Amino acid sequence: METDEFILNMGPVHPSTHGVLRFKLRMDGEIIKDCQVVLGYLHRGTEKLAEMKTYLQFIPYTDRLDYISAMPNNYAYVKAVEELAGTEVPLRAEYIRVLAMELNRIVNHLVFMGSLLLDLGASTMIMYGFREREKALQLFEMLCGARMTFSYFRIGGVREDLPEGFIPKLNEFMNDMEKRITDYEDLINGNEIFLMRMKNIGVISAEEAINYGMTGPSLRGSGVNYDIRKMEPYSIYPDLDFKACVYPECDSYARYMVRVDEMRESLHILRQIVDTIPESNVIATQKYGVAPMTGMPYTAQTYFPRIFTPPAGEVYSRIEAPKGELGFYVVSDGTTKPYRVKIRSPSFCNLTAIPKMVVGLKIPDLIAAFGTIDVVLGDVDR
Amino acid sequence: MDPVTIDTTKFKPVRRKPETALEKLEDTGLISTVLAARERKGLILLTTIDQVFNWARLSSLWPVTSGLACCAIEMMATAMAHHDIARFGMEIFRASPRQADLMFVAGTVTKRMAPRVKKLYEMMPDPKWVISVGSCANTGGPYHESYAVLKGVDNIIPVDVYIPGCPPRPEAWLYGIIQLREKIKNEGYGAKWGLNK
Amino acid sequence: MNGAEELKQSLPSSVISTGMQINKPLAVIKKEDILPVASKVKEMDFDQLSVITGIDYQDRFEVIYNFFSYRKKENLVLKVILDHDSPAVDSLTSLWKGADWLERETYDLVGIKFTGHPNLTRILLPEGWQGHPLRKDYDMDTEQFVTIGEDGEDIVSTDGSKLLRRK
């Protein structure tokens, strides 16, 4: 019996594609021969909008790029503008920034685990993951008033100091989370069905991954020890003690394990921050004084001019977002609005490797491999 | 200036017990049904059947999974254990629009995605309702001046309830769902044959 | 000696100038020589291509490549200047596979052609979209709408009457 190849469309509206992403698969029976990724269903034109808004007005747009973990997006943009303008940030503001970013890393990895397991067919983990996420979102709401799209960072600091009662609640959350991660590992890691679906699926070797431009946990799952927090440290990371989690087998299971270990490392970092956060006198009051008109001391934000015009120039700055290397290339021409902002998003560059990973597998394997790349469409399409 | 504190534990909403006979009759809801029936110029028998159909429809609305962007994450959060929408009957999110009767348009509708959203709406069988969630789906939101964004999903499909927010909190989602239930309660004869779309 | 000076020593005819871009060594390259320079850069152990940016100035286009080396932990920035009427430069897909989609995106939004690219088509906007949005002379007033054709592909036009409910 002769069979023909046919083209199957996993369309933009699909429960497992983490958003509106389209795959055109050329199939021979059940085996995938070729995979073409079609993007752009969520392209909103953020880079063009950056040229119409001032530097401060663009910060809420950066939240909506990777909407699951919005704090690192804010930070990448703010860091680029600060490098361009040479602004100094007070020390307590840096501690608060890293606290917010590491908490957001935990939230991101919880959502990753939940949605990966939901795609594989198990609906327990997403319930647990979102339950923990609610507690973390209540912490964020105490901090800045919003649950998901924060706009908490400003150029030169953060918007407000930590409220009262935040640190005890954070300690409660951390103690709880430590036990829960152990529970989740017991539930999932040894499960035979999970192992069969994840081991040796979606293999990509280290040289190929570097050539494709993959970064982040997806690259560390292939044995490459590249963590920007260790390679080009920024903020207060040189003072903190943590390790980059690397696994040498290049398959989906390794990428999953990297993220589970990263959650533990983030808790470790949070504990160090809570122990060593400088007390309130390191905020701008002593160094930067008192505002002339009202007599009130300046808060964690340094003195930020009302009309902010950085000097003309270009800068590219990158951070380790939970999904990979997030970078902003900002070009300024000396006016109040940026001339060009280019966003280097981790999901876009990690997605390049999917056609290579998936040839020769079946469709459920495509979903498992794609789930471990951890793609968010707001980041891919901008 | 001292900050003002309000002690909210002192306020408690108290529902008065109905005392007179008229108040007790009002409390049962029969009067509002009769008045509504008279306003719609329908017979009381048919309006009671309408009420039964409306109750059946609003108690088990099944949504279709059409979350596009950030608001979809809040949709997942609303569907999970903390703020449960399964208690409103939306137990399962159907993947196929042919089996669903409610569409949450959650997220930015770009020009490239717009014909697909319209096709999804046309594939749903009657009676169907649409809730537009978030400011991007209501009017284009923060991306109003962008070249690639449709300025509101009501340019392509008719919308019943708008939920503002960016993204709206799960409590706001639940409020919007309750508003839709109120709207379905007041629908009449024409809804059965989809004549009011 | 940083990466840019090393390049200037080994290929002096291709490098127009060197400098610094806020802590990163910068080298401006002639546009015809980008492929041999890029091969030399890859030999110098810069194995990660981070980002390709295209910028539209009034009188010229610029394409900027950012590289990073894992072993030496150094950065390098290359800049290429193109003329305004028909900007075109060689593609780097033969050396770095990650350049594939980055160049497609630059073509889509800024309009710079990369010769030698295997599949230079639009990636974020649908095929048939008129104009390149990130250019400074893009017309933001005319709205373009997308409908679905017979074989499922997008058709772009400025007439939205089939899609919209009301004028």
Can you summarize this structure?
Chain A is an alpha+beta fold and 382 residues long.
Please describe what this structure looks like.
The complex is a heterotrimer of chains A (382), B (197) and C (167). Helix content of chain A is 47%, strand content 12%. With 382 residues, chain A is of the alpha+beta class. The model of chain A is unreliable at 281-289 (pLDDT under 50). Chain B contains seven helices and four strands; from the N terminus they run H-H-H-E-H-E-H-E-H-E-H. By secondary structure, chain C is α/β, with parallel strands linked by helices. Chain C has three helices and nine strands; from the N terminus they run H-E-E-H-E-E-E-E-H-E-E-E. Chain C has helices at 3-10, 34-43, 99-109, and strands at residues 15-21, 24-29, 48-56, 60-69, 74-83, 88-90, 113-115, 145-148, 154-157. At the A-C interface, helix 8, strand 6, strand 7, strand 8 and helix 13 of A face strand 3 and helix 3 of C.
Features:
heterotrimer, B: 197 residues, alpha/beta, four-stranded parallel beta sheet, 4 strands, globular, disordered C terminus, C: 167 residues, 3 helices
Average of per-residue pLDDT values of chain B = 81
End-to-end Cα distance of chain B, whole Å, is 56 Å
What is the global morphology of chain C?
elongated
The number of distinct helices of chain B, counting runs of at least 4 residues, comes to: 7
Major sheet of chain B: 4 strands, parallel
**Largest chain-chain contact?**
A-C, 39 and 33 residues
Question: What is the helix/strand order of chain C?
Answer: HEEHEEEEHEEE
The helix-strand sequence of chain B is: HHHEHEHEHEH
Number of beta strands of chain C:
9
